[in-house]
Amino acid sequence: MVAFAESRNLLSLRRGPSILPVHDEKRDTRAMVRRLANTSVEIVREVERGHIRHVLFDFDGTLSLIREGWTEVMVAMMVEILLATPRHESESDIAACVRHFVTELTGKQTIYQMIRLAEEVTLRGGIPEDPLAYKHRYLDRLMTRIASRREQLRTRAVSPETMLVPGSLDLLAALHDRGLLLYLASGTDEQFVCEEAELLTLTRFFGPRIYGAVDDYRTYSKAMVIERILRENAIDGAYLLGFGDGYVEIENIKSVGGAAIGVASDEANRSGTPDPWKRTRLLGIGADIIIPDFRESRALLGYLLE
């Protein structure tokens, strides 16, 4: 049933941005937001507290910064491909189109963005390649960009903290020490998620509960992971907390009644201030709480768990 819904949603993307159900990014949320005292933790709406037993994390941009800049790599490749079609627009118009659909599909498996690319090629009179071929081309370019980062981590030339959203290790340790079960679900291929989680020393917190994309994309989604957590533990969504920097994981957590924390991380600078674009996006999606990173995790957990 979930796989059918994923496929149906993908087809409906051709209708344009109006199909996004809860993205009201122009809505004025200032009156809704309050801060925890002396912190940058923004409470958009109160959530049920004290019941949380399971915590789901997105990976790239929420915890890991290894792939910082992936959007630029993907957009550049797609613009290049679309400029080679017979009926293409100007480069700036194509870039705007690509950024829009890459953004709205962020958090889903990478293959969904490549399926959309194939559709856009067809619309402009071109003959698309298989989406899987596009995905492999993109991954080759991305791996070239991030190879030195992975090697530096592998050889311990840099510490894992330098390629994590600040405060990640402290937050994960605090949750783990409290006996909560932690899960990692990513739109990145599972092989790479597992490798990079190990490089960042995160496997100790998640154990076998690390999930990522597979070539048969219909058999995996973040929604499926959430459904499995609830089913196997015989719980409802009130026991689930989710962290993410994209709309998919926030939307999925909210759809089952869980508490959703939007991580408006400044990936390039690790500045400790929220990325304005991400913050606006996460507010529009319906995140219950907005944080720039995990440096104030003690106050956040005090609010959520105590």
Describe the structure.
- With 306 residues, the protein is of the alpha/beta class.
- It has two domains: 28-65 and 164-305, Rossmann fold, CATH 3.40.50; 70-154, no CATH class.
- It has twelve helices and eight strands.
- The protein has helices spanning 2-12, 70-83, 91-104, 110-123, 131-154, 168-177, 190-199, 203-206, 222-233, 247-255, 276-285, 297-305, and strands at 34-35, 42-43, 54-57, 181-189, 210-213, 240-244, 259-263, 289-291.
- The chain has an eight-stranded mixed beta sheet, with helices on both faces.
- Strand 6 (240-244), helix 10 (247-255) and strand 7 (259-263) form a beta-alpha-beta unit.
- Helix 2 (70-83) packs across helix 3 (91-104).
- The longest helix is centred in the middle third of the chain and has 24 residues, at 131-154.
- The two termini are 37 Å apart.
Short description:
The protein is built from 12 helices and 8 strands. The chain is of the alpha/beta class and 306 residues long.
What's the SSE pattern?
HEEEHHHHHEHHEHEHEHEH
Query: What's the CATH H-level superfamily name of the largest domain?
Result: HAD superfamily/HAD-like
Instruction: Report the mean per-residue pLDDT as an integer.
Output: 89
What strand line-up does the widest sheet have?
1-2-8-7-6-3-4-5
What is the CATH third-level topology name of the largest domain?
Rossmann fold
What oligomeric state is this? single chain
Largest pleated sheet: 8 strands, mixed
